[in-house]
Amino acid sequence: MTNTPSNTRPRPRIRPSSALPSSRLSTAGASALYIGALLGPSLLLLPGLAARAAGPASLLTWLALLALSGLIAVVFCALGTRLGSAGGVAGYTAAGLGARAGRAAAWCFLAGVVAGAPVVCLIGGSYAAAAVGADGTAAVRAGLVLLVLVLAVRLLGVRTGAGLQLVLVSALVGLVLFAVLGAAPAARAAHWTPFLPHGWRGVGQAAPPLMFAFVGWEAAASLTTRLRDPRRQLRRVVLIAFAVTSLLCLGLAAATVAVLGPGAGGSVPLADLMRAAIGGRGPLLAAGAALVLTLAATNTYLTGAAALLDALLPSGTAAGRRGSLIVLAATVLTGVPLFALVGTGALTTSQLVAVPTALFLTVYLTCTAAAVRVLDGAPRLAAAVSCPAVLALLLGTGWPVLAAAAVALAAATFDRTGDRPSPTHSAAGQEGSPAGGV
């Protein structure tokens, strides 16, 4: 079997777009954008969830997932270099597995963005509640208020540009570095024992939710048309982004355990680290940053989701504000029940995170499976190794895997639009997910 996708699978037709960026990025500029696609508000929550599940051994989970994300980065770098940006994750999947699988990947990505919005808002709500000493119920209420604010902003048509996104990500990076370095004197060696309080099972249970922090590698698709020399630059960009995100994630995870000790399993680890660094003002500063990040990031994701929906549906079906209204309605129908379940205790924070994580993992599963068919050499080996690992993580999310399977099967089976173009690059370029871009 040849490794040339055009000989094995028909390339998806791409809807022309006038929104493709004409400017060319330097390696440094592209690296900044890529890091922005990988980092987001999820970094404010996940170190605590991991420490709660696995204790100090959660650092092993971080290391394992960083290794896996490195392989996934290699895969998307190769896909972006070989296939370009056309269709994003839908185009990559369709190139190796066919148009039906491509549709499934696109709709799972869209559903992941919609389901991820309540998660991001709950993160902001948790930090707001912690700043005033309120309980978990107040966090859910604050998160619901944030979601309403985001929906109102989207109804008004307010957009957050790439420049603002980079500023916010820079603020997040600065805040994490300040918290980690400032709280370092409070670290205690005793906090690392017992190292495996919940055994190896805890290490495994921490992995699926943590994968929410590593969604964003597919942003390579949106960079290929903006680089001066994609074949040469994209590898460097991916390497720089991987190095920076690895250092930040490991630094925050290690500080969470070393400084907070038995209290490391909370839902606001960065606020707790800021308190250790500068006292009572720390949680207020962390809450302010979390609220701004939540509002801006969620608005960005829903904007991208509306553009992706516009590309998925037939011309005219979701034109103009209609696509945005459909996404907002879906967010309400998804978010309100999820918040209600969390508020009543029927759904834990880890389970809430697992819902969008399962959808994004489904996308990564289809992309890595397709990559095995269309790539060769080291990238193909990376895809062959990462594909079963992603499948294991997907199955580890629990019942949310059923929701992901339902979305994928429905998208692949029911196609009222017939032979439809794949999503444009302009939509794919906004695939800022609530993990990565979050």
Compact overview of the structure:
The protein is mostly helical and 438 residues long. The protein has helices spanning 5-8, 27-38, 46-54, 58-83, 88-97, 99-131, 136-155, 162-183, 199-210, 220-223, 230-260, 269-278, 281-312, 321-344, 349-374, 377-396, 400-413, 425-428.
Count the strands? 0
> Which consecutive residue ranges, at least 5 long each, have pLDDT under 50?
1-22, 418-437
CATH top level?
Answer: Mainly Alpha
Give the DSSP E fraction (strand runs of 2 or more residues). under 5%
Compressed to H and E, one letter per element, the order equals: HHHHHHHHHHHHHHHHHH
What structural class should be given to the helix and strand makeup?
mainly alpha
Number of H- or I-type helical stretches: 18
Q: How many strands, which pairing sense, and closed or not: the largest β-sheet?
A: none
Task: Characterise this structure.
With 438 residues, this protein is mainly alpha-helical. It has a single domain (22-428), classed as Amino acid/polyamine transporter I (Up-down Bundle), CATH 1.20.1740. The protein has helices spanning 5-8, 27-38, 46-54, 58-83, 88-97, 99-131, 136-155, 162-183, 199-210, 220-223, 230-260, 269-278, 281-312, 321-344, 349-374, 377-396, 400-413, 425-428. The protein is globular, with a radius of gyration of 20 Å.
